[in-house]
Amino acid sequence: MYTAFDTTNKIIVMGFRGTVGNTQLSEEIGAFFLGKRKFFNVGYVFEYFFDAFMYLWNGGLSSHIRQLKYLYPDYELWVCGHSLGGALSSVAASYVVQIGLFQGEKIKLLTVGQPRTGDYDYAMWHQNTFPYSYRIVHHKDIVPHVSPQIMPDGDEMFHHRTEIWYNNNMTIGSPYHICLEADGPHCSNTQLDTSFEDHMIYYDTDIEKYGASGCPKK
User: Fold this and answer.
1) Alpha helices for 62-203 (secondary structure H)
2) The Fungal lipase-type domain covers which part of the protein (predicted)?
């Protein structure tokens, strides 16, 4: 992940990358069935996501963000990520609110292709805490449907609001749906089939190639 700041727009940024390689992917899939961790007093999140975030937080992210907050106390915090990075973004934004570093009203959260990250209680707390929180979903992207809502242990996992669903190829000017219901039988959940290809292409851009080429401006 990375941190950044913008003195023109007065923002601090936390950005999280997605999964790299089949080994990490298999670890994530297996972790869905290994357990969840209580997230303060607001519900549960998948243990893998929490532990991955804390690894980054204790490995330098905490000192970076605290230093930037000290230097720019009035700046907004923007948090973004794709896939695994979307889940980490959700946990990260929630964590800095819980420890009192930022207020929810000063955070903008934007994720693409985010998997389900926590349970219903976590989703409800999230929607009441962050006025600006959007999950972008491309057409048949499979990852937002992982994990399943009903887990083998009977627990129910839910996305938090608000989903922005592009039921198309996401070229410039494409229409989108603002799905006010967090995780009901609407918008992307109406898809009977799913696609990994749609997970790797957002806004008509192959994310993997785009990153490898240095994120060039079009």
Assistant:
1) 62-71, 84-98, 120-129, 197-200
2) 13-149
Give the contacts of 77 (CB within 8 A, at least 6 positions apart): 11, 12, 13, 14, 93, 96, 102, 106, 107, 108
> Which ranges of 3-83 would DSSP assign to H, the alpha helix?
21-31, 47-56, 62-71
Omega within 30 of 0 (cis) for the link into 90: no
Task: Show me where the domains of the chain are located.
Answer: 2-211
Opening angle at CA 108, ends 140 and 32, nearest 5: 45
Predicted confidence (pLDDT) per residue in 3-54, tens digit: 999 999 999 999 999 888 777 777 777 766 667 899 999 999 999 999 999 9
| 3 contacts 71 by C-beta, under 8 angstroms | no
Architecture of the domain whose range is 2-211 = 3-Layer(aba) Sandwich (3.40)
Average pLDDT over residues 145-167: 84
pTM attached to this predicted model: 0.93
- Please name the residues in contact with 91: beta carbons below 8 A apart, sequence gap of 6 or more: 39, 45, 49, 50, 53, 117
**How confident is the model over 76-110, as pLDDT tens digits?**
999 999 999 999 999 999 999 999 999 999 999 99
